[in-house]
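Give me the 3D structure for Methyltranfer_dom domain-containing protein.
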Amino acid sequence: LVGRIADDEEYLRERSADELSFWLKKNKPKTIRMNWCCPKKPESKSIQCGLRMDNLPLAYDSQNLPSTEEKWNKTVFFSKPFGSYEWPPSVDYIEYY
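Predicted structure for Methyltranfer_dom domain-containing protein (97 residues):
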């Protein structure tokens, strides 16, 4: 399937790309879009970077590592740098099942 993408024939390259696209869509893992409620903004007017009470849920905690499968599956990972300076109203994330 992937070997024909670099074939000399244009028809085979196009068909292989279509087949690969179809296969990737069929085998895509099932997901649920979830909404994570952001913590309340701090009362102070000056915005500081670093560990604050509103971004502690994202900080690394060596005492509470996800050592079991259940804890690991409940852990929320963000792919964008939310919470460093301020939070958006809400954050959408994808949960795989």
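Residues 12 and 88 are 47 Å apart (CA to CA). Let me know if you want a second pass.
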